Amino acid sequence: MQGIIIYKGKYGATQQYAEWLGEELKLSVTPASNIKGEALKKYDFLVIGTSVYIGKLQIESWLRINLSLLEHKKIFFFQVAATPVEQLEKRQAYNTAGIPNELQHNCEYYYFPGKMIRKNLSWKDKFMLKMGAILAKSSAEKKTMLTDYDNVAISHIKDIAAAIENYMHK
Ligand SMILES: Cc1cc2nc3c(=O)[nH]c(=O)nc-3n(C[C@H](O)[C@H](O)[C@H](O)COP(=O)(O)O)c2cc1C
Residue 83: which CATH number? Predict the structure, then answer.
């Protein structure tokens, strides 16, 4: 059974999880920008990772462009974001909005914590964060947006890795 890990992120958090999974499962890893169309045909299953910016999945347009090739494949989908994993409804809403309906039932969903180091951000992303903080409903939310954090850890891949392993040897 053949599978591949495809990801789209901006500052390395999603890439890090994709690489850890690749090492653990001995699967190849590629940024979404390097694979499309017919090249997807030979895979039985896909592991797809994305981060979230202003409520939008980074990988959204790639999913739409390649929809016809993804439609009948098993997908393990992981999402990386700042919203705490405990706020599952908010995390799920990002997927509901960003994953085409035709794919939603093919996916098994996983949610990972992210990281944000302000000095690494583009001026545009810094600006968006500042705007977000101004519009934030609570001071706690405001503080979260303006504070660096790094919650990326290999321990978070345990469940998805076990599920994929199980699927591969079924
Ligand atoms: C400008 C900006 C907007 C963001 N918007 C959201 C958001 O709407 N929801 C959320 O949960 N996290 C949001 N995040 C947090 C990112 O998803 C998080 O930092 C993630 O780890 C980024 O992963 P990446 O480096 O792979 O892109 C935002 C971060 C930035 C810098």
Answer: 3.40.50.360
